[in-house]
């Protein structure tokens, strides 16, 4: 008997779930708040790269702007960016616009409390997830090397594609760093070193965030394949408003097609919420019912919305006497995982250090926005950038009372439902992590004989659009919302999948782990539907 | 294009400037009209200087006309950003890279071999 699954969110997690569930023969409806967009993303690339107009917004924005009243997150705390702008609501979600950096977490990443004395341990081990990491790497088409990173986790299979080699300048810098005990290596990434799975080989356009040919992975690739089975229905511009229970078990998803006023029900055996950390928590909170669900699904202990964690990024640059000519390779090239898991108890987070062969876009942008009289004048102003190289720190964070998402008491959408309010502020742990990063920046600069190194101030941190936690996994409803498969405690048939279920935000980019866990959850849901 | 050539200093211009202008004109009605007005202004000024066509003026003459437009507050307000600064912004992400010694610019297909070779461009 074909079972029906409703998935909320058509980002990389929702589409991964959908693809694997239809492959297993289940009928899937996937609901996306935003519009569909062309894939491959050539029109987006034309808008944002080829014909980018620095002085005006694109005439035909991709994705199309959402109607007013769809987004309205409010925020407080010290996060310098606008969090609402970091949530891309369209088919493919944020993974239509990303660099594709896809490391695995380490075995130690799942045990911060046991090994380092902070945060909480995950209810899943690296060993349990490892087979799904292999599947995720094949699914996304990851190019990488399991041999050149001495700090990498154990692997049972090689990467499906060879790595993108370091640039010539990378190699020169790597030799200097190695002489000083600093190890760097290639970057695993969802970018095709050669043609793979119906996607063309990367040609090093360099603007990976909006890849025009599909060499860098987009969820739209597998969504199209899933649609061909005839088992998947895509609902775009559809607002998922409530999950409806019958007793404790899921019965349906209530949604509004085409952003309209009329509500419809999608009766489903399983509803999976994969709408990002903020919107997933919101849907659980809005779906309150009687009994243990009076404060929202999975929220009997008030855990939904807590444990929010961003993946903190501090950017900087080094200046050299010699020309280093960055920017000849697509951004993700050389990085170091040497400092992601310092051993023993500590009160600061691990960091991953990126030394990408990156021609500072910010520098170009700032120059281009000045008023110039001639090209020659502009070239002279750009010339110092040839001596410049980026250095970026991706930092681990721990949950805390100053990091949470909750229903807003002031701001509502056009249906009268509260938007989310996010409060986020750095704590002492984060400040200490920044000091560690600053010292490391100086150590790298010294080893590379750089003239100077400058890191953004601690206050100028960035989430890399990685919003994690809020519906975290655990073994008990007392301190978690879901189990390791994403099943909401005491609510059969309701699941939450994606970064929202992370227990901690590590120093490593989360996307591959999100996809590996989604594949594991899809298998679990499929087996559960088959046997129930 | 003749104006862009003068402002950027690139001769001859490759097709991406024309593609940029065509894209803006195709998607924004205001740009189509603005480009027409700009063409008329430079043509009139070329005629006033005894030249039949701005596009066949020599470079010093074109530059002189452009300087007049950019220094006159009335015409500068209309054309400085959408014509001159946008042209220079296009230059910044394309031909400026070549002027700095790169063999190609980000946004073009550069292949996966050249970046692994020693850089053979400009000297420090």
Indicate the topology.
The complex is a heterodimer of chains A (532) and B (124).
Chain A: E1 4-8, H1 12-23, E2 27-31, H2 42-50, E3 74-77, H3 112-116, H4 126-140, H5 168-179, E4 185-186, H6 219-227, E5 232-235, E6 239-246, E7 249-256, E8 264-267, E9 270-273, H7 276-286, E10 309-310, E11 312-319, E12 334-336, E13 351-354, H8 361-368, H9 375-382, E14 388-395, E15 403-412, E16 418-424, H10 428-447, E17 452-455, E18 467-468, E19 494-496, H11 511-531
Parallel strand pairs in A: 1-2, 1-9, 2-5, 3-16, 9-19
Antiparallel strand pairs in A: 4-12, 6-7, 7-8, 10-18, 11-14, 11-17, 12-13, 13-14, 15-16
Helix pairs in contact in A: 1-6, 1-11, 4-11
Chain B: H1 2-8, H2 16-27, H3 29-48, H4 59-71, H5 73-92, H6 95-99
Helix pairs in contact in B: 1-4, 2-3, 3-5
Q: What proportion of the residues of chain B is helical, as a percent range? A: 55-70%
* Number of distinct helices of chain B: 6
Number of helices of chain A: 11
Proportion of residues in extended strands of chain B: under 5%
Oligomer: heterodimer
Defining key terms:
heterodimer; A: 532 residues; alpha/beta; FAD/NAD(P)-binding domain; six-stranded antiparallel beta sheet; five-stranded parallel beta sheet; 11 helices; 19 strands; B: 124 residues; mainly alpha; 6 helices; 62% helix
